[in-house]
Design a protein that fits this description.
about 280 residues, alpha/beta
């Protein structure tokens, strides 16, 4: 497969999207729920957005967007995603989506959950990202799909910074011998690319001849030259694998780390949802 790398300023993307530098107004209904995980041994706060006119008996179900770092350090990632989906769905450009932000009581648990174990565990039985992935796959997503009308074939994951590392991890974790991917698409926004991500990519290529996932990856131009090298190396490596079902797109945004959130999610959601009714 071929990949393209686009470069755009954050201001241009915001002007094209018709939004300012804050979240757009939300439609639908929102609630906050507690979720206790036995696997992690901790309680999460779920920030749930249901679409306007939500139908619990919808035969095909709704797409599910899992948002990492929903309220971390005031970046308003959950509010940004909810606002973008509310705006585009109201205009008929994207489908209505159930959004769930997986949040915490404190600021430190995200690193516990999003970072891969060091060294990576080929059996995926370690802590960190291994354990958080198991929590999503075995506890949270089954519970959400029991509670809400969700289409299992249309789950997507959005993450920025360490959340972006986990988004890559979740995509590369797919094992075709187990079943379909946990997420059909991911947005990985301005994250680092350590050796562990390249290890996961290599392990996937060794166990599978395809990667049926849509991946939208971004980097902030002002985040430095080192990230540029590893970002492009990962994209080139994946593009060279010849995975027939992989959909891969990328964007370099002329902004800083925090400024990458909204344009990354806007363009990433367009990539993942724009072709749906």
């Amino acid at each position: 497969m071929q990949r393209t790398l686009r470069v755009c300023s954050a201001l241009t993307l915001l002007l094209l999207g018709g939004c300012d530098d804050g979240p757009l107004p939300a439609t639908g209904t929102q609630r906050v729920e507690d979720f206790d995980s036995e696997i992690v041994g901790d309680r999460y706060l779920l920030r749930v957005r249901l679409p306007p006119g939500y139908d619990p008996d919808a035969p095909e179900g709704y797409p599910l967007a899992i948002q990492l770092d929903p309220t971390f350090v005031g970046l308003e990632q959950y509010a940004i995603t909810v606002g973008l989906i509310s705006d585009r769905a109201s205009r008929g450009e994207w489908p209505e989506v159930i959004v769930v932000g997986v949040d915490y009581d404190g600021p430190t648990q995200r690193d516990r959950d999003y970072r891969p174990p060091d060294p990576p565990d080929p059996a995926f039985t370690g802590e960190g990202a291994d354990r958080f992935y198991r929590m999503l796959a075995e506890e949270l997503i089954p519970q959400l799909e029991a509670d809400y009308a969700i289409d299992p074939a249309r789950r997507i994951l959005l993450g920025h910074s360490n959340g972006g590392i986990f988004a890559w991890y979740a995509a590369l974790r797919h094992d075709p011998n187990v079943g379909p991917p946990l997420f059909s698409g991911v947005v990985a926004a301005d994250n680092g690319y350590g050796e562990e991500l390249f290890t996961y990519e290599r392990w996937h290529a060794e166990r599978a001849d395809d990667l049926p996932v849509a991946i939208f990856a971004t980097r902030a131009v002002y985040n430095g030259a080192r990230q540029k090298v590893t970002f492009e190396a990962m994209l080139d490596r994946l593009a060279g694998r010849g995975f027939a079902s992989l959909k891969l797109d990328s964007l370099a945004i002329e902004t800083d780390h925090a400024g990458a959130v909204q344009p990354s999610y806007e363009q990433g959601l367009e990539f993942l949802l724009g072709g749906e009714p």
